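Components:
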Amino acid sequence: MSKNLIILGSGAAGCTAAIYAARAGIATTIIRGNQPGGQLTITTEVENYPGFAEAIQGPWLMEQMEAQAKHCGAAIVSDHITEANLTARTLTGQSGETYTFDALIIATGASAKWLGIPSEQTFNGKGVSACATCDGAFYRNQHVAVVGGGNSAMEEALYLANICETVTIIHRRDDFRGEMVLRDKVKNHPKITIIWNSTVDEILGDTESFMGGVTGLRLKSTTDGSTQEIPVTGVFIAIGHKPNTDIFTGQLDMDETGYLTLIKGTVTPTHHAQPLPGIFAAGDVADSVYRQAVTAAGMGCMAALDCNRYLESI
Ligand code: FAD
Ligand code: NAP
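Structure:
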């Protein structure tokens, strides 16, 4: 009987790992998770994935990657893993199904971070969002804000500027973290205003009426603590991502922000110096630095090749 591999996640890392593993003859199953296709499905244009002279759409790219994995022989399961017992080599899905594996590639990526202020929860879905491509159309011709200073915040702002009346970017420092080409586009866009050195102190709105929603933001200066209010009907939080590693807490080594730490591609179990045999990780879940589709895909390839060597050795 052939040894089986489970790949957790259907983003760039998971799909690429599946392509390589299935082509190597390994019985490969991708468990897609609750975001099939991963983070690139919540963006529009992708200009930096090699092989395409013109910009392509993120959701289309991910459809193609999954179709390619399937074409190579990988099985695709729609489930989300809620419990992992790595010693027993079992996974339990939201569906109630239990999965066993000889080898596992963890490619669970990362999810949007939130500010953590109570009003963010109060107005979630009623003016607060973490995905402009999903929710931007609700704010056509309105005034909106984007919080953050990385590539995501700038892309969100540029996307919203095509739909909304004005876009205000709120950033806690006086310089963007994102790449130069996006910085220039944002700074020169006539509909985009930047408020530097500020954080969101409170999201203001109407909680009384049934149709209530966001009406403005109270901002706090990070330099002198002063506050100001701006009127907006929507606020898009784009302050980075948190690795999806909660189900491995206490089982695998992680850095202080929850990213899996790797030794030559293999995850390391908590309190052990040696890698856990047959368990690999790839993509954003194990990469706090590069976090690109192409690097995730590259890590997926590496994990599958390592996995193949491992399965041949047992
Ligand atoms: P992800 O894409 O995060 O996929 C993770 C997968 O794991 C998902 O399928 C999810 O359903 C699954 N999963 C999670 N938890 C579980 C679980 N418990 N059980 C089962 N499955 C699970 N990069 C670029 O190179 N170019 C760009 O233009 C670009 N634009 C971006 C725009 C936005 C708005 C964002 C947010 C990111 C962008 N990135 C871009 C970054 C890029 O999307 C990521 O680097 C890439 O998606 C990482 O791929 P991944 O496979 O590691 O993880
Ligand atoms: P990021 O690069 O980590 O940037 C997060 C931004 O949010 C930073 O500017 C940070 O401020 C700010 N921030 C963090 N916590 C905050 C808080 N509590 N309150 C206010 N502001 C806060 O995250 P990202 O922009 O989502 O990008 C993630 C990765 O995906 C990156 O590697 C990026 O290159 C990649 N990506 C690439 C593209 C592309 O290639 N076109 C597009 C999108 C994303 P500081 O700067 O002060 O830390």
